[in-house]
Amino acid sequence: MSSKNRSFAAGLMGALDESAPQPEAPTRMAIGVLAGRENRMAELASGAVVARAIEQVDPARCRLWSEHNRDYAKLDETRCADLIESFKAQGRQEVPAIVRRVRGDPDVDFEVICGARRHWTVSWLRGHNYTDFRFLVEVRDLTDEEAFRISDLENRAREDLSDIERARDYLKALGRHYGGRQKDMAERLKVSEAWLSRYLDLARLPADLVAAFDDPHELKIKHVTQLKPLLKPDDRERRVLAEASAIAKGRGGGDPLKPQDVIRRLAAAADPPKKSGSPKKSGQASAEVVSSPTGQPLFRVEPKGKKEVNVTLLLQAGGSRADAERAFTELLARFWLNTAGAEPA
After folding, report:
1. Among 152, 241, 275, 317, which one is most buried in terms of CB atoms within 10 A?
2. By C-alpha distance, which of 333, 276, 328 is closest to 302?
3. Choice between 134 and 153, residue whose per-residue pLDDT is larger
4. Cβ proximity of 123 and 60 under 8 Å
């Protein structure tokens, strides 16, 4: 037998020998796959794993939930810059938005519960030469109250969501989902009533007062403790709202006022001039607050008798020293004429 035939015979005998190493049969792989599926089904049945429907969809087929707490109109390249760069670097959206399916609307398939910035970013990218991007969503079956709580939990720790956005969301939800019962709402959200109350107070600030701030999104919870007391009693509220309207109307040239500067002006307007210890005599001039050309209170003037006045500087109201000096010169000339009867030197 030639060497070639001997090699063939040896190979044939090895193939027939069951003790020789055999290639793994395809049926063993199939059994492994089936066993893995059975384990997965057991995990789902036990609740250890929750199945979620994840889809890649067209953002144009999605709409924002009417109770979404994001001010979508305020979103722009600056507020979404981190997501834009992240999506570009990854080539896709990594974290899905939470949506629920919409029925009966031929133009919309999904309603976005959480993920307005992600929706805006994908839409923006698709409109700026990244047409392959799709909106990654997790589809859930949710009631309105469940949707509110999920949205709140996701956004509560986000710094890019302003306090006033969250506050207005809470105020709407209080009536819609909790019948106006603040205690019930706090229990469902797992927060204290005091914590929730501060947000509701922020949302309840009068619109005229909020308009005094150059950017309402800069209003914080810490400002509520300063603003709320200015609105009681009614006469103080009237003066504060009048000053707020003056600030809003005077907005224009120059640097915008910081929130604390606005609050100082409102606080200065809240309190009426102090009354002197002696009764006001007939014909005696009343106290007045002298303001700068742009409306910042500079000082309070209280006449005392015929030849005396008390001048209280309002240093925290935001006026400049130059404005105060000019106004005081005018005041001095006016009172000098009235009391001395002669032109100032």
Report:
1. 317
2. 276
3. 134
4. yes
